[in-house]
Amino acid sequence: MRLQSKLALFSAASKVVILLVLIAALPTLVNKVALHNADVRLQQKEEIVYQLIGDRGIETYIPEGTTSYGSYNLLKEEFVSLEEVKSGKVNNGISTALRKVEGEVVEYRLLSSTFDLGQKRYLLEIGRSTETIGENSQTLQSYALIFLVAVVLITVFVDLAYSKVLLKPLTLIVRRLQRVEHPTTFKPHGLNTSTDDFLYLNNTINDMMGQIQEAFQKEKEFIGNVSHELLTPISIMQNRLENLLADPETPEAMLEKLVDNLRTLHRLKSIIQALLLISRIENEQYLKDESVSLESLVREVCDEITERAEVREVNLEVHVPKDFILPQANQSLLFTMLFNVVNNAIKYNKPGGTITIRGEEKPEGYTLCVADTGVGISEEALPFIFSRFKRFHAPDGESHGLGLPIVQTIAGFHDITLHVQSKLGEGTSFCFQFKGA
């Protein structure tokens, strides 16, 4: 999973957890807030009542001959009552109590307060229906829940946007690395960011890839130089042995040994020439300045190899219904690439087997496949068939384990995608994907 996705999931999950905790605690919190607001309102009304009594006098509310005063609103949601009480009886504070109003019992949030006026003591009670407080509490809960959900959603989207902007340099680094098909094609780039960690990572990758490129370059130069230098003494030795074979004075017993030595030198020379070819291709010493017809290329390879297929009793079938032209290519290298694949298909086929060369135009380009009915390649060996000097087929006198590495090198040189499928005992298929114009 990508880092940005992990950050986004963590951010969303943490906010959901926080939201659930707040939702669980919301009723209690809102109820407390609603009760607190109700108590504050009762206290404010208490001050107003005291002010009215001070301005108008207690007689306005409790005339002579009466001992109490009561005022209820129409829906019994609030009331105010005044009554004369005996001295020494004190009821102060706010609590929840039941009151019977017009034959109906109603639960109120009740403020009780006693005060002395003249020679008398009075009890002031101001009440508000708890049902009204509960309705206000539910309204507050609904608005608070909507607000919390909106805040969480907004913060999640903000976090997503910020993490995308924050991790953009890392995404850029990854995409650059994904476009690198080979270490030698890597080009160092600067990074426009203020995050020191990403700058350090980018500089480290640039330095590391530079070292890898330098090591690859040294290896290429070494292989090329050594291969070139070895060809001269091998050619001299080969000429000397051939002269000894042609010399009539050479003893009969030595002739067989000389032939074996020449065969060994020939194998060694083939290996060196293959290494030299790979080195030159990797160092881009070949030009891609020819227009190559795949149909003509297939025909040339088949003309060259038909006799060998007949000797091995292998049938060669060609199906290239529509031609495809490579505008910038190297005819000789492409011939070597296709020839090596078809030659392997003959070499590791079964007597009476078949090799099918099939071309097919597709939306993404052109596909040319070489399929055989040979011995196939085991699943564990398949990932290593392009490794140099590794062999997984039965040894013979012509193959030196470099045919397929050459094929891969030439394909890479022409930006050709190569796919291999094989099943042991049933055959192998090599497919070359040519990019469309």
Can you tell me the number of structural domains? 3
Bin the helical content: 40-55%
Main sheet attributes: strand count, strand direction, barrel closure: 5 strands, antiparallel
Which structural class should the secondary elements be placed in? alpha+beta
Number of strands: 12
Task: Report low-confidence residues grouped into runs of 5 or more.
Answer: 393-400
Mean pLDDT: 84
The H/E string reads HEEEEEHHHHEHEEHEEHEE
Which strand-content bin applies to the residues? 15-25%
Number of helices: 8
Distance between the termini: 35 Å
Radius of gyration based on Cα positions: 47 Å
| Main β-sheet, spatial strand arrangement | 1-2-5-4-3
Gross geometry: rod-shaped
InterPro entries: HATPase_C_sf (IPR036890), HATPase_dom (IPR003594), His_kinase_dom (IPR005467), HisK_dim/P_dom (IPR003661), HisK_dim/P_sf (IPR036097), Sig_transdc_His_kin-like_C (IPR004358), TCS_sensor_his_kinase (IPR050428)
Subcellular location: Membrane
Keywords: Kinase, Membrane, Phosphoprotein, Transferase, Transmembrane, Transmembrane helix
Organism: Nibribacter ruber
Write structural notes for this entry:
This protein has 8 helices and 12 strands. It has 437 residues and is α+β, with helices and mostly antiparallel strands. It folds into 3 domains: 3-162, no CATH class; 196-282, Helix Hairpins; 290-435, Histidine kinase-like ATPase, C-terminal domain (Heat Shock Protein 90). The strands form 3 sheets. A 5-stranded antiparallel β-sheet has the order 1-2-5-4-3. Strands 7-9-10-12-11 form a 5-stranded mixed β-sheet, with helices on one face. The chain has a two-stranded antiparallel ribbon with strand order 6-8. Helix 4 (196-246) packs antiparallel against helix 5 (252-282), helix 5 (252-282) packs parallel to helix 8 (403-413) and helix 6 (294-311) packs parallel to helix 7. Its EC number is 2.7.13.3. Residues 225-437 form the Histidine kinase domain. One of its GO terms (molecular function) is phosphorelay sensor kinase activity. The chain crosses the membrane at residues 7-30, 143-162.
